[in-house]
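Sequence in, structure out. First:
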Amino acid sequence: MKSATGRWVTGEDFFNRENELQVLEQRVRDGNHVLLSGQRRMGKTSIARELGHRLEEDGWVFLFADVEGSTCPEDVIAGIAEAAHSVRPLMSRITTGTLSLFNRLSHRIKDIGPRQFRVSFRAALDQGNWRRFGEKLIRDCAEHDQPVLLVIDELPIFLKRMLRDDEGYEKVDEFLSWLRGTLQQLGDGSPAVIISGSIGLEPLVRRLRIIDRINYLYNFRLGPWDRGTCIECFDRLARSSDFQIEGGVGQAVYDKLGMGIPHHVQSFFARLTDHALMQGRQRVAVSDVDEVYRTVLLGPAGQNDLVHYETRLKDGLGDELDYTIAMEILAEAATQDVFGFVARRGLEQLYVARVSDAAERIAEVLDVLGHDGYLETCDAGYRFPSNLLKDWWAARFGNHYIPIEQRCPVRNEQSFGFAVQND
């Protein structure tokens, strides 16, 4: 098992998740369309690709379309077509009778690379025809001799980008309605579809009041590893390396992280071995764990990894004011250990002068923060489940942050008339 940071894994590098794979595979084989959710860095892309590769061994066709860079539905349709490019019988079906362009190209389709094919396909699409050609593309997958699994990755990011356009709400509604209608029209003969992304689709459609556009999707949430699984992963990485790992290092790593996010376990292992090499030794000691956590994971070298969370949060919220509210909540939770009832009421009072719907906005932001794994509910309010994220946010704001209660005193929490909920 190789140490892997920042990339999806498969085959021998794919660790654990067998139970989740069995459930996900059964849902797909039963003809369900799946919304693969879970906080970021949890391995959603890896499990989707691993499932696809295993199904391929059983005669399925696996198509993976990453639509993060898409700006309009035409881009998404072209991305799916590119994913289908390597399946020659399927490509013959797609190109036959689709466009005059492809009628001219079909005789030399083997000579056209996937990128060139996508560019050509995209050039023929516009606002007036993408629905028709997109429906034909999905129907061609349904009529293929082999069952097809289509994974559409980072769809929520694409939808958030469309929201910035004029009539963005209408465009998002139209696309989701089209996708649902196309798949439901095909019924049991439809290709199996998995939708996933590093920001949550559910909070987005709830905010837009169009939750019914995804009610045909089976929600499968990928959770964190437990303590034993994290330690087992760390020990397997250790056995596959050239380093001597002192007993107890894996346990110390989990205690520092506080939560079994697979990418963080992998990253911690890589940073520990890098640290040992910098010290001129091939041995990792328990005493290294705290130093590497403080100086590397929370230091400059770890910033790229953690800044990703802030970037994706901004993508998920979009609105600048909502993003500012989110940063207030996270700073409070990091420096005060919890974002509690008093702080929530105080934050409402701080923002009500700027927006009349301050309470609703805070509730919606908390919904995103909870769904995407930044915070979780507790008896006192909301807290970080991950020590790494909490300590990173605390390090950023700890020296100059003023708690909300000091900026906006409130009487007492019993008079607020609300309790912590999964907003």
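Second:
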Amino acid sequence: MRKLTDLLRGYVRLRVTGGSPQWCLNRLTAERIPFWGTEFVDPFTLEVNVYSRDAAAAKNAAQRAMCDAEAVASHGVRSRYHGLLRRPVLLAFTALAIVCALLVPNRIWFLRVEGNVTVPTEKILRAVREAGVTVGVYGPSVKPQMIRYRVLNDIPELLWLTVTQNGASAVVTVREKEPKPLGAPRDAMRNMVAIRGGLITDISVLEGSAAVEKGKTVLPGELLISGVIDLGNKFRVCCADGEVFARTWREIGAVTPKTYLRKAPTGRVRHTVFLQIGKNRMKISFGSGFSGATCDKMTETKTLTLPGGLTLPVSLIVETYREFTPSVTETTAEDAAALLRETVERGVISEMIAGKILSASMTDGESDGVYTLLEKLECEEMIARPVRAVRFKGDETND
């Protein structure tokens, strides 16, 4: 311990020469100057150690004892590393390395997800960050059980989750819930009913018994295929399944304004660059942006990734602004009619389970600054829909 203290405080080795060097030791003792390591070289010379701060006082004491004193060696941290004071950059990086060596191993800097198939990785990472596992968080403070409860509550598709730390990297391991099998249980009873009224054109029964015939007109909600099969002396309950096509009719109206705002690009483009470290974002480009109402913005993010696939919390964000001038444009009656007809027919097709449009007739017009369209469509589509059957009084039906 004494040697460590001497190195930290620093000391010098003095060589005292004179007719009686012992008098120098008496003067040092009288002036209360600490010394140690006394060694006689010859009858007129000795060497002694004193602290660096007392070196000048020790030389003066030697002169008063009719002796000469000179420093022959210097020891300690300051004397050995005093040249570093003239290299501030090296000192700064040394201090940074020491801080990183103390902080990095105990903190989480990388997050990785494994085990997910259908749930997006970004969705899991967002939920984990909201639960407290962020970049730079102190590793031992992360409680996997608490993180599991919060994330499973936010993402019902997950069955299990845990967070394990390996150095500066945290691995989020998840297990997803098994998808429920399609269809109804074997002992369930199910009927097929009409979701739209129409004229039956084709019936294909895969399970159950047909309740309607080809050429019959049905109303919405009417039974098409029954889940009860009559076997003569008994009945069998099943899940009705099949396809029933019918000819249906619709009458749909649509409107669109005569004028609209159109973007005319001016050709001016500006880029704004940001550097994001963790959650802190700083702008590193110059210049002001365009008005948000007269430009389109596109954002591109480039994340720094190590060769092993670990993503650093450092991103370069480039925002591209393209200026435009809004101008009022008037739609012609022909273009409006084509647009409305396409919109109506696309919506009808999207509503069908299966089918097609057989014919369509439309009536268009113009009033109060808008174009109007009334279209009548004749379609052939699959109208059967499975519903839970009611066995007893009081049972509920799940559509």
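Remark: The helical segments are 2-9, 22-30, 55-64, 77-81, 88-103, 121-130, 144-154, 333-351.
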